[in-house]
Each structure stands twice: as C-alpha cells, then as structure tokens.
Amino acid sequence: MKKDSSPELSLPGFKGRIDPAWNIPSVRAALADCPGLLQEPETRILLRSRNTLAVVRIPLASGQKAPAVLKDFGPRGVNRLKSLVLPSKAAKAWRGAWALLERNINTARPIAYLESRKRGFVDRSYFLAEYLDGLREIRFLLRELRGGALDGLLRAAAVFLAEAHDRGVVHKDLSDGNILVKTGGAAAPVFYLLDTNRVRVKNSVGPCLRMKNLVRLGIPAGRRDYFLDQYGRGTSIPGRLRWWYKFQKSVYAGRVNLKKTLRLKRLAEKLGIH
Q1: Which residue(s) pair with 67 in the sheet?
Q2: What pLDDT, in 10s, does the model give residues 167-222?
Q3: Using H for helix, E for strand and C for coil, what is the string for 84-142?
Q4: Domains of the chain
Q5: Cα separation of 84 and 2, whole Å?
Q6: Global confidence as pTM
Q7: CB-based burial, 126-153: b 16+ in 10 Å, e otherwise
C-alpha cells in the first residue's frame, strides 16, 4: 500500500485520519463524540457484541445528514496487549479498505478512523465508512438461488475472488457475512468486501493459501467442484489442491461445530440444565 496522504485527524483524546472529501467541521464535530453518535435516536444498531456496528447519520455542510457505518472496537485480553506494538483494529480497517480500493476491489469507501491510547495500549478505536445501500450478504443468495441463477452467482463470485488473490489480497475472515452483492436485472453481480481490518496484502498468494482462504464460504456441497472450476478460469484446479480445499473445509466445519457445542454446554450450565 502506498504511503497514506490523508489528513491527520486530531480530536480530544483521539488521533486518526480522515478522507479529504469528508474533512469538514460538521463531520469532525460528529466524530468528536462517537459514543454520542451511537446513542442518537436515528442510529440503527446492526451488531452489539465484542464490537458494535451501527448505521449512523453524519451531518453535512448543507445541513442534511448522510448515512454512514460506524464500527466501535473495544480491545480486550490478548488483542489489547498486542496493541502496544500493533495498530488498532480501526487503523487496520482504514488501511485494508484503501488497499482494496487501490487494487480496484470494491468495498465501502472509508471516511475516517480514530484511536485512543492509554500507556501505549489501544483503549478505544472507531472506524467510519460510507453506507452501501441496496446490497445483500451473499449468504442469503446462496440459500435462495437455484439452478442457473445459483451457478451464475458462483461463477461471478469465483472470478471475483480469484482476481482478488491475483492482486495479492487475502481476507482472513472471508465468510458469507463479509461479502455483499449488488444484483439487478441481467447485469452481472457486483461484489464488495467488508470487515477490512482482516484484509492482508501479500506480494503473491500461493495455491494452498488460495484454497484455504475459500473454505469459510457457504458454497452448497453439491456445487463446490463447480465453484473451483470457475475459480480456475479455464485452468483445471489440480486434484491435490481440491483435496486440500475439502480437507480444510472439513477442519473448519469441525471447529465451527465444536464452538457451537461448547456454547450450548455453557448455556446449559448457566440454566442449570443437565
């Protein structure tokens, strides 16, 4: 990624960067109180877990408000310790988003990021990006589509991901919830990557890593070979790599099932169910 030339953003207790197009007093004033933004009546909370994800309304110079997605990262445990020497998740999200855009890979355009540090450790960080309207998570389409419509989606997704890998991009959480799709009429699907703090850029992405990077996608079991055929774009995927993909898929599925079992066990213990 080229050197970041975006303006620095300095607000009470926080430092970060802002897209020049959004570097106006009303936006800076809103970012000075991110917790307040999350509490506004018009804010729509999308996720409240380790991190909070919400659609907020950002005041523009015209007096109107524009929707934007705000992600509030609360570092804990090991991640907080790592932050002593590593950038905050918000900074990674900012860098990851620009890395995608520089490589002509669609994502929500970043607006700003902020991070607060105490004694060198990240205490809080926020990432703000433009809101993408009218898109759906690929998970829903993978469940709903059938026949030729499903194959068309798989073909387009496979080519999109192969081209991202060609450009050195590896998304470390390439799951169904982190790929948005724009569909419309006879036009080919258009894909967008989210959760950009998990984006990594390499000089090249080797074949084994490519296959492993695809296993989190919920490709229907009966169409996985077809998906790999399309990923090859006319070049047959060798049998050893197909086996590696299926092996990694089974390892991932086992890990997911184990987590579900442990969650249910913890829930049963809390409820006193034996």
Answers
A1: 57
A2: 999 999 999 999 999 987 667 899 999 999 999 999 999 999 999 999 999 999 99
A3: CCCCCHHHHHHHHHHHHHHCCCCCCCEEEEEEEEECCEEEEEEEEEECCCCCEEHHHHH
A4: 8-130 (3.30.200), 136-252 (1.10.510)
A5: 24
A6: 0.89
A7: bbbbbbbeebeebbebbeebeeeebeeb
